[in-house]
Design a protein that fits this description.
Elements lengths: L4 E6 L5 H13 L9 E7 L3 E2 L3 E2 L2 E8 L2 E6 L6 H24 L10 E8 L4 E6 L4 E5 L16 E9 L2 E9 L3
Parallel strand pairs: 1-2, 9-11
Antiparallel strand pairs: 2-5, 3-4, 5-6, 7-8, 7-10, 8-9, 10-11
Length: 178
């Protein structure tokens, strides 16, 4: 972290062991995003419930380039759990922020290509052959954008593969129209 960490407690005295645990967890946040400019952590006991006892509330405010991240979880009667939950949430927010900041976006894999290598129209099924030579069974009900009766050997398709009772099969077949 670029600037010192600020840990404060409200409405109770925070034992040094907890303060040290919070310090270590805060320093570990640099692993997820190394440009944290400021980190303020407030541990408070808003009010005491007669039946439940003290509930600990953790709030983490982090300043990063171009944003202020605020993490606030549900209060918990166990201070260790409240700290753990708050820092887990902080880690997730930092990971998300770092991904957005880098411009990294999840890309879904394209469905694989194949061509129809055999058709048994009278029986309602056929076979696809992939570019690596694998043979995939498909049923007429798995074809989603084309009439099965009008399919022809050699047509290019995209498909979703699953494991069937007798080997690989296509759960979805979509004809690529040219």
């Amino acid at each position: 972290m670029r600037l010192p960490l600020q840990i404060s407690a409200r409405n109770f005295d925070l034992p040094e062991t907890f303060r040290e645990d919070i310090r270590k967890k805060a320093e570990n946040l640099d692993k997820y995003y190394d440009q944290i400019m400021r980190c303020r952590i407030m541990v408070e006991v808003p009010h005491r419930h007669r039946r439940e006892g003290a509930l600990y509330n953790i709030r983490i405010d982090m300043t990063v380039p171009g944003a202020e991240l605020v993490i606030k979880r549900e209060p918990h009667k166990d201070l260790n759990v409240a700290i753990r939950d708050a820092f887990d949430a902080a880690r997730r927010q930092l990971e998300d922020f770092a991904r957005r900041h880098r411009g990294a976006v999840k890309h879904h894999e394209e469905t694989p290509h194949a061509h129809i290598s055999a058709l048994f129209s009278d029986k309602g099924y056929g076979f696809l052959t992939t570019s690596d030579g694998a043979e995939i069974y498909f049923h007429e009900h798995s074809v989603i954008n084309y009439d099965f009766k009008h399919l022809k050997v050699g047509m290019e398709v995209r498909f979703v593969e699953e494991q069937g009772e007798k080997g690989p099969q296509a759960s979805t077949v979509k004809v690529i129209e040219s």
